[in-house]
Amino acid sequence: MEYIDMNIPGKSIASTLGILAGLTNVIVMILALSLIGCTVAPLKKIYAPYVNLERNPVIIIPGIKGSELKNNDKKRNVWGGWWQFSKGDFDDLELSIGPNGSSDSYAIFNVDSNVSATNIFSRWRLFGWFRGMSEIDIYQNLIDTLVNYGGFISKNVGIKYDAKGNLIDLIEDNDTKPKGNLFIFYYDWRRDNVLNAVNLERFITKVAEKYYPYKEVKFNIVAHSMGGLITRFYLGYHSFCKQASQKPENIYDRIDSIESDKGLPKNIGKVVLLGTPSGGSLEILRGFISGEGVETLSKGDVKRIITTMPAAYQLLPSACTQECFIPLDEDTKITLKKLDNAAACDSVDYKFSLLNPATWKELQWSAFNPDWRYPDRDEKQLFIKKSLQRAEEFSRLLRKTDNNTAISDILRLMGGDCAVTLNKGIIQGRRVLLEQTEMEEKMGAIKQQDSVQEKGFAISYDVPAKLENNFQPGDGTVTRTSMLKGLKNTNTLFVCQEHGTLFKDITLQDNMLYELLLKDNPNY
C-alpha cells in the first residue's frame, strides 16, 4: 500500500480515498491471513514429556525487516509494532552516508543514526483500539512454537546499541525466570551484514558470561532469511568476528582477503536456517528498480531508503547478468554480454556482473537513472558502487565456506518449495520485468494444461510453459535453488508455505523441535 501525503494542497479528497482503499486492502489481507494455520497442532502432546529435558539454549535471529527500529530522540518506532502514517517516521529509516575514505575501506557505512533496533518484530498492529482484530503475527508464531510446544523459556534480554550500530551491552531485564533458555538477537537490518555478524559474536559472548558463568555452554540457532546469511558468515569467520568485536574500526576494512576458519565456534551446537537465500533473491531488486516490496511505504520512499542500506545489496544474487535475465532483443543480448566481459562468470576473481556497478550504470538502475529525483545523486552513486563491491566480497566469502564439512554437519535447512518464485527477469532495452503478469503479457504466454496444481495445498505451483525458465519452486521470495546453493548435501526439509509464514507450518515446527530438543541430545 502506497503512502499518500496528506499535506499536498488540492489532494485531500484523493488522499482520503487512497487511504480508504489502502485500508480495504489491509482488511482483506488480515482476513486472508486469519484463515491460515487454523488446524490445531498436536505438537504440545508430542513434546509434553520432554519440556523439562535439559537442552542447549536457543537464539532466534530474524531476517531483513524483522526487528523493530525506534527513533531514540522521538521515542517512537519507525518500523514495526504499530502501523505508521507519519512520513517523518519513514524518513528516519534512511541511513546517512559516511565519508568516502580510501578505496580499501568501507568507512562510507560507518555512520551515526538516532534509530536503533529495540526488539524482534513479533506482531504487526493496524490500530490499537482494534488490536484483537488487526494483529498479524510476524515472528510470534516462531516464538510460540518454541515456548508453548518445546518448553523453552524466553529470557527477554534487551540489547543496547551505540549510534553506529555496534552492540555494546545487554540491558538488565527484570525477568523472574532465572532458567530462561530462549534468547532473541535483534539488530538493525539496514546495516552491513558483516557488522551484524560481529554483533552476533558480541551477543553470544555477553549472554554466555551473564547467564552461564559457571559452565561452557553451546547455543543452538534458529535464523530466518537474511539472519541465516549473518549466521553463516559468523560460523565461517568467527575468529575474524571475535577480533573485530574488540576493534570495531576493523569492521569496515575490505574483507576479501580474510581466511575462513577450519572448525566451528566452540559455543555453537546446531543451526536451523529457515528460508535463507544462500544464492540471493532477485525479489530485492524490485525495491531498487521500482520501489516495490514494502507495503507500508510509497514506491518513492522505498527507492530512496533501500539505496542507503548496505544489507539490501547483500541479498542480491551473486550471478552473471545473463543468468538473472532473459533478453528479448539483439541489442539487449549484446549489452548483457558486454557487461559480462571476458569470462567474468567463471573467472577466479569472481567479478559477478549483477554486483558490478557497470551493470547498474548501463541499465540506469536506482541513482544511475537520469530521472532520479532525490538529493545527492553523485553521493548515492558512489555509495551504490561501494555497497555492490562489499556485497561481492561478502558473497564470495560465504562460498568459501560451502565445502566446510564441520559447518554442514550442524546445519539444517528448512524452507518452502510450492510457491511460484522469481528466478529470472525479462529485459528489453532498459525495461526490466519482474512480475509474472507483466511477463505473460509481454511474452504472450498461454497457460498450459500440464501446469502443476496440487489440490489440498494452500499454494499452487502454476507457471505458463513460456515462463518456465523465469520461475522456480520456492517460497515466493527464495527459490529452492537459492536455498540449496552450495549446501546440497545438507539435511533439508521442504514445506508448502510462503516466506513469511514458514513458521506456521506444522511439519516444519515438528522437525525444528525435534532437531533442537531431541536429536543428538545426550539426555534424550
Q: Please tell me how large the radius of gyration is.
A: 23 Å
Mean pLDDT over the residues: 83
The helix/strand class is alpha/beta
Biggest sheet overview = 6 strands, parallel
Q: What's the number of helices?
A: 19
* Spatial order of strands in the largest sheet: 10-1-11-12-14-19
What is the tally of beta strands? 19
Helix content: 25-40%
Q: What is the global morphology? A: globular
Low-confidence stretches: 1-40, 128-132, 447-459
SSE blueprint and pairings:
Blueprint: H1 12-34, H2 43-47, E1 58-61, E2 67-71, E3 76-79, E4 81-82, H3 87-91, E5 115-120, E6 123-125, H4 131-134, E7 136-137, H5 140-149, E8 158-161, E9 167-171, E10 182-184, H6 193-211, E11 219-224, H7 226-236, H8 238-246, E12 268-274, H9 285-289, H10 299-306, H11 310-313, H12 321-324, E13 325-327, H13 330-339, H14 357-362, H15 377-400, H16 405-410, E14 411-416, E15 419-422, E16 425-428, E17 431-433, H17 436-443, E18 471-474, H18 480-484, E19 491-495, H19 506-518
Parallel strand pairs: 1-10, 1-11, 4-6, 11-12, 12-14, 13-16, 14-19
Antiparallel strand pairs: 2-3, 2-5, 6-7, 8-9, 15-18, 16-17
Helix pairs in contact: 6-7, 6-8, 7-15
Explain this structure:
The protein is an alpha/beta fold and 524 residues long. 34% of the residues lie in helices and 15% in strands. The protein is built from 19 helices and 19 strands. The protein has a 6-stranded parallel β-sheet with strand order 10-1-11-12-14-19, sandwiched between helices. The longest helix has 24 residues, at 377-400. The chain is globular. Mean pLDDT is 83; it is low at 1-40, 128-132 and 447-459.
